[in-house]
Amino acid sequence: MTRAARWQRDMVLHDNKMRTLPEVHVHVDSGPQAARQAFEILKGNLEELSLDIEELGAVELVLAEAMNNICEHAYANGIQSGPIDLRCQHRRDGLHFKITDEGQPMPDGRTPLGLAVNVDVDLLDMPEGGFGWFLIQNLAKEVTYRRRNGTNHLSLRMAVALGTPVS
Predict the structure, then answer these.
(1) Secondary structure element (H or E) that encloses residue 153, with its range
(2) Is the distance from CB of 99 to CB of 71 less than 8 angstroms?
(3) In terms of DSSP H, where are the helices of the chain?
(4) ∠ CA 140-161-48 to the nearest 5 degrees?
(5) pLDDT tens, position by position, 74-131
(6) For a pLDDT cut of 90, what percent of the chain falls above it?
(7) DSSP per residue over 43-86, as a string?
(8) Measured between alpha carbons, how far is 156 from 123 in angstroms, rounded to an integer?
(9) CA 10, CA 123: separation in Å to the nearest integer?
(10) Are 163 and 112 in contact (CB under 8 A)?
(11) Contact (CB, 8 A) for 119 and 103
(12) Which is nearest to 71 in space by CA: 122, 26, 39, 33?
């Protein structure tokens, strides 16, 4: 298996027998290109859903923010490195993502609140960060985090490809 990524597929059928995409599993090593590598593999596997540009952009933004946070914070901005696993399942209510890593836990054992940052300030006083969790919390649904057996588990749902059968 390549260092950059590996994926596997498992067919998922639901109660109404709507055919959905196979589960996608992407594995990358933390680092500056981790989010880009993972998204490129995922995007190729989502083509059958014919997501519009806004839906695909929202998925990319949320996953990039989440994975970059892992690289910068859980793996201490490159001081440590480790695996990041991304799983995606297509269901009737959208795309369900599970992201796991073996880095440091989130502070206080939970995701940040994701409050809007005040941007009504002078450009020089604009905060450098703080936008990521706001974007994740507002673009994704059912965002949950837990730490179990030394592993971080972040789950979220994107309300895209709703009820979209695969042809």
Answers:
(1) strand 151-158
(2) no
(3) 34-45, 53-69, 132-139
(4) 130
(5) 998 667 889 999 999 999 899 999 999 999 998 887 776 655 555 565 655 544 555 6
(6) 55
(7) HHHTGGG---HHHHHHHHHHHHHHHHHIIIIITGGGTS--EEEE
(8) 33
(9) 48
(10) no
(11) no
(12) 33
For residue 89, CA distances in Å to 26, 158, 160 come to: 12, 11, 12
Q: Is the pLDDT of residue 24 over 60?
A: yes
Q: What gap in Å lies between CA 30 and CA 84, rounded to an integer?
A: 6
Query: What distance in Å separates the CA atoms of residue 163 and residue 31, rounded to the nearest whole number?
Result: 35
Distance between CA atoms of residues 129 and 159, nearest Å: 26
Cα radius of gyration rounded to whole Å, the chain: 16
- Measured between alpha carbons, how far is residue 127 from residues 70, 105, 117, 118, 162 in Å? 20, 24, 8, 8, 35
pLDDT digits (tens, 9 = 90+) for 149-167: 999 999 999 999 886 666 5
